[in-house]
Amino acid sequence: MMLQTYKIDGMTCGGCVANVKRLLENLEVVESADIQLEAPQGKLSLKHSVEVTELQKALGKYQISKIEKPKEEKRIEATDLPEKSFTTYKPLLLIVGFIAGVTLLIQYPFTEFSGMIWMRHFMAGFFIVFAFFKLLNLEGFAMSYQMYDIVATKWKGWGYIYPFVELLLGILFLINIAPVFTNVTTIIILGISSIGVIRSVLNKQKIKCACLGDVFNLPMSTVTIVEDLSMLAMSAIMLLLL
Description:
The radius of gyration is 21 Å and the shape is elongated. It is built from ten helices and six strands. Helix 1 (14-25) crosses helix 6 (138-145), helix 5 packs across helix 10 and helix 9 (179-202) runs antiparallel to helix 10 (222-241). The strands form two sheets. A four-stranded antiparallel β-sheet has the order 2-3-1-4, with helices on one face. It has a two-stranded antiparallel ribbon with strand order 5-6. The chain has two domains: 2-77, 2-Layer Sandwich (Alpha-Beta Plaits); 86-241, no CATH class. Mean pLDDT is 87; it is low at 70-80. The chain starts with a strand and ends with a helix. By secondary structure, it is of the alpha+beta class. The longest helix has 24 residues, at 179-202. Strand 2 (30-36) and strand 3 form a beta hairpin. It has helices at residues 14-25, 52-59, 70-77, 86-105, 115-136, 138-145, 150-154, 157-175, 179-202, 222-241, and strands spanning 2-9, 30-36, 41-46, 63-66, 208-209, 218-219.
C-alpha cells in the first residue's frame, strides 16, 4: 500500500468532490481516495504505483497532476476546511437566530405566549428555510450528504429526496396538520441523520456539513450535532405535550 498526493483542478463544489472520489475509487488500483475542494487536492491510497495518465482517463474533465514535495502536502493539508470559529458558523447562527426571532415575534405582544406554538413555528421556519438552501443545488447537496449520512451512503436517492421531506415537514408544522405524524417523523428523520453526524465528528472526519446545502462551506462539528439534537428534542417535547 502506498499513499500519494495529487493536485486536482476543475472541482467547484461538494458534488464535484464526491464525483471525483467515486471515479477514482472505481479504479482497481485505488484502495481509497480522500478528496478535498479548497486546495484542491486528493490523497490516494494505492495498491501499487500508477501513471497519472491512467488516473486522468478516469477523471475526464477534471485535471489531475502529481505532487512530489512533502512540504507542499503538509501546507495543503492545513487548508482542508475553514477553521472552526464564530466567523465560520456565522451564516448558520444568523439564519437560526433570524428564524427564532421572527417566530417569537409572531405572538407579540406576548399576552398569552405559548412555548408550544413558538416551537411549532420555529420548526416550520427551520425546515422550510433549510430546504430552500438545499434545493438551490440539489445535486451538490446530495453528493455532500452522501459522504456522511448513513442512509444516503447506501442509497444515493435519499439525498435527492431529503430536502423535499424537510419542506413537507415544514409545511405540516406551519399549518398544524397531523401533529403526531409530523413530530414522530421528525424524530425518526433527525435521529437517523444525527447518527451519521455524530459518527463523523467522533471519527474527526474533515468533511463538509450539508445542513445548508452546497451554498456555504461549513465544516462538520459539534455545532451540527447540537442543531440536530435540539430540533429532535423540540419534536419530542411537542409530542409529549399533545
